[in-house]
Amino acid sequence: MQAVVLGIAMGLTAGTLALAQEDKDSANYMLPYCRAAVNNETVTRPVDAAMQGMCVGTIDAIGFMMSEFPPKEKEKSSCPSSKVKLEQIVRVVITYIEARPERMHENLQRSS
CA quadruple 32, 33, 36, 37: dihedral positive or negative? Predict the structure, then answer.
């Protein structure tokens, strides 16, 4: 009986801790890493470098996928000029996110 109660208590505690954790996919969580990447900030921890790469890579991947929509879905596509650098695209995304603080909790990959 004690084992069952202990198991339930541990499960409830773990669930509460999971709710308290920050959403690592949110724009709010990723924005500092995006800024650091385009500002070439010095990386002090490997995790920071990984998260900067995650931000830039996510934006690059979304841009690539949007350029690959079939012709019948071109209204959903995005095709910046080949002269536009990835850094410029990331800066535009940062500006877009900062202009919509009410949406900072949303998933960076699914925001539109």
Answer: negative
pTM score: 0.70
In order of 63, 70, 73, 89, 102, the CA distances from 56 in angstroms are 11, 24, 25, 9, 22
User: Alpha-carbon distance 48 to 54, whole Å?
Assistant: 10
Domain ranges in the chain are 23-103
- The C-alpha atoms of residue 45 and residue 85 are separated, in whole angstroms, by 26
Sequence letter at residue 66: M
Question: Other CB atoms closer than 10 Å to residue 109's CB: what's the count?
Answer: 12
Residue 44 φ/ψ region, left for φ over 0, alpha for ψ in the -120 to 50 degree band, beta for the rest: alpha
Is residue 15 pLDDT above 50, yes or no?
no
- 101 residue type, one letter: P
